[in-house]
Predict the 3D structure of the following.
Amino acid sequence: MSELAASPPIAARPRLWAWLFERGWLLGWFALSRAVIVACAAAVHVAGWPRGYFKTAEFGHWLGVLGGWDGRWYREVAAHGYLLVPGSKSDPAFFPLYPLMLKGGALLGVSMSGAGIFLSNVFFLGGTLAFYELTRQAAGSAFARRAAIYVLIFPFSFVFSMVYPTSFVFASTAFAALLAARRRWLLAGLVVACSTLARPEGMFVAIPMLALLRRQWDTLRPESRGTALGAIAAGPAALLAYPAFLSWALHDPLAWSEAQGAWGRHFSPLGIVGAAAHFTSQEASHPWLIRDLLALVAYLGLLAVARRRGLSSAWTLSGLLMIVLPLASGTVESVARFGLCAFALYWGLAELTRKRRFDFVLRGVSFALLVWWTIALPQINP
Amino acid sequence: MIGPALLLPLAVTGCAFAVLAISFGKPTRAQLHVATVLARLSRYQVATSRIVIRGSRPVSAICLETSLQSRARPIVGGSIVSFSDGSALLTRPDLVTRVSGAPSPWRQLKLKLDLAGCPASISARFQSGLLHHLPLTERKLRYRGAVVLVYRLGDARDGLTLVVSARTLRVLMLVERSNGLVGTSRLRFLSHLPGVLEVSDSSPGSRTGGSGV
């Protein structure tokens, strides 16, 4: 009995190493891209330039740049919880799971910034491995390899190394889909719930999961069908928990939406029209909005490529919602970041770069932009 | 099939709520009150204040919250602050401009501006993050026959004291402390905005920075 119990880890160890060895190229690209980001952050710290909107705190540490912008708010929530000052910038605008993780890091004696940067990078590595597996199962190794490399060197992929929940949402989206594909629906549901508690767009993985369930439906037992349906509903269910908590703690279930208002985000059905109509006036006070507009156009183009080449329409729809729904807040600001968890974008890129020469050029351009935007972080909100 | 399909989402909502409630808890009653009061401050359009700066004669100030339009920028909320010593400032979310008066260092301008008690800039300055950090005390007093609540934020040198009606939470008075100096503001409410004021971008200004989501 004890021999049987002891045998799996011994057998599993060589398999794990072999599995990792096969993906050595991915680990290499991960190390290279993250080293570039760390080097850029350190260079900004040493040079003290560009100053942009950052204050002394962000320049006080060699990785301080990666803890800037919303990172400050996530740390604030982790340290003090939530409080809404209507009309002012307040912490309920930030979803709770990631600050909870930072709080956990602080309990272990790690600084919140340090814990955030470490966790984000670990999630990103795990997420990219899971993304590669997911893509490989659907489209083969060569395609999956290109797509995974583009995730790692994507021009805005510096966000995956910041004190932001983006890398967690990316990883949990990939893991939820992998688990659902392997019919482990209960676990997939829990992962989706966690993803949604970190960022609302986490629940959009329910669309590809629904497509998977449709394919598995006839072969599933009735109780497994129920679990699968429950797993798909777990995202929206987790989303409900946040306003319920805000109602209990702040007596305002809509505190999230109200706090967003202080950043100029007001969700409405005609918000997309407003985002287009007010772009020029918003751009006058935030010149970097042009970057988000260009990203939006590029993202829509990449989704169209992914769709035209017959890649999963469920994933394309999920990506489209991640990119288009934030526009209902009346601005294109941060769309470049919101789209980072739309897997179909990377599949569109992998599809476009089937020709080796084009792939080579695009990797160079992507890397150059990654360096540029990382250095520009103090000036431009991701 | 229906059982797990309903139970799983219910369990997720319940567990997530419990985890959040246990992990983050609730803010104190005083914090919630001050947050409401600060939000109400932004409805005030005019503040008159008396500023006492050590070593100089007291000056009075009037702050008018309005909308500003310049050629190169979109319409934004801002304040015009006029002091009895002849100086005047114009503030926008990321810029403070001297309109008239003798040139003075930025720190001095900032001090005068803080002490003038402009409602919008106070409510913008005391974001939720600052409310978490600053010491906060609450006292109930009787003032001219009415019960008032006195909230003191910060310490003796820097901070804000809000005097509000206990019944309506209407702000009656605020005392701003900056670097050990004091400005006392009485707030007035106007129901109509004074319109959009056109401003020139040519005056020298000081950037105050900003942040975003």
